[in-house]
Write a structure and sequence with these properties.
alpha/beta; two-stranded antiparallel sheet; Rossmann fold; seven-stranded mixed beta sheet; 6 helices; globular; binds S-adenosylmethionine; 11 strands
């Protein structure tokens, strides 16, 4: 079914893929993370993910694919799913460069109909994906559908506390209610990291902590860990974030069917 918000976001991510790839070059991690997974996966995540060799893993909203490369480097058989063909094309070339065999699938995370049910041991998603998705419950229902019974569902998202502040050097000023899920409409350019106004549209959705937890549970998963971590982010989108959590991690097991 057509989703106008997702269509606009896809167009924007396709247009911005080249810039995103350049920013990944600046970080210089994509060439290393298959050998040094700790560069892109926190100890909180690795504790649950290891050992992963030989397991079938699906990464939803794979973007720069650094997590995909890290998991493939750990020996997993990884499928990388993203709505943006351009993002996947960059990742596929890079996978070839570092010698990783990865399956790439272009799909919306709320409609994984091209993927069989119960086909993965692990589904991993996050790192700033849910913010682009208008229906969190549908997204996680699809994630749980493609997971085998007792399979692991790992969500590591940017913490909802990052979303609500105004740009300000002086201190935190609430810009939008924590409870306002959006959609927030922006006129944006191809530049994603250093946003400036442009001819493209993007739509963002601000999910709360309980939205994330509720969506994982409604998808038929039993939560085994919830963690909030990271507090050294000096600035996020112009707001001083020191002392607030950067990430929200939810680790769950798909209940037996
Ligand atoms: C910020 S990246 C997140 C992944 C990674 N952490 C990164 O920084 O590149 C966001 C990714 O989500 C993808 N995305 C946005 N909406 C999506 C949707 N509805 N279905 C699948 N992927 C989506 C975008 O194309 C983009 O590659």
């Amino acid at each position: 079914m057509t989703n106008l918000y997702h269509d606009a976001n896809k167009t924007r991510w396709n247009a911005g893929a080249e810039n995103w790839a350049k920013s990944a070059d600046d970080r210089g991690l994509w060439e290393r993370c298959h050998q040094e997974p700790e560069l892109v996966l926190s100890p909180y995540e690795l504790r649950h993910l290891r050992p992963i060799s030989g397991k079938r893993v699906c990464v939803l909203g794979s973007g720069d694919n650094q997590v995909v490369f890290a998991l493939a480097g750990l020996g997993a058989e990884v499928t990388s799913v993203d709505i943006s063909r351009q993002q996947l094309d960059f990742a596929s070339k890079r996978a070839e460069q570092v010698g990783l065999a990865i399956r790439f699938i272009q799909a919306d995370v709320t409609d994984l109909s091209g993927i069989d049910s119960e086909s993965f041991d692990v589904v991993y998603t996050g790192g700033h994906v849910a913010v682009w998705v208008s229906d969190l419950e549908k997204y996680y229902l699809e994630a749980a559908r493609v997971l085998k019974s007792k399979g692991l569902f790992v969500v590591n998202e940017y913490h909802p506390f990052r979303r609500i502040w105004k740009e300000s050097r002086d201190g935190l000023i609430v810009g939008s209610s924590y409870y306002d899920r959006g959609p927030f409409e922006y006129d944006v350019s191809e530049e994603i990291l250093y946003e400036k106004p442009g001819h493209l549209k993007s739509y963002e959705f601000h999910w709360t902590v309980s939205d994330f937890i509720g969506a994982v549970m409604k998808a038929g998963c039993q939560i085994i860990e919830v963690s909030e971590f990271g507090e050294d982010l000096a600035h996020w989108e112009g707001a001083p974030m020191n002392g607030l959590p950067e990430n929200l991690l939810i680790v769950a097991k798909r209940c037996a069917r």
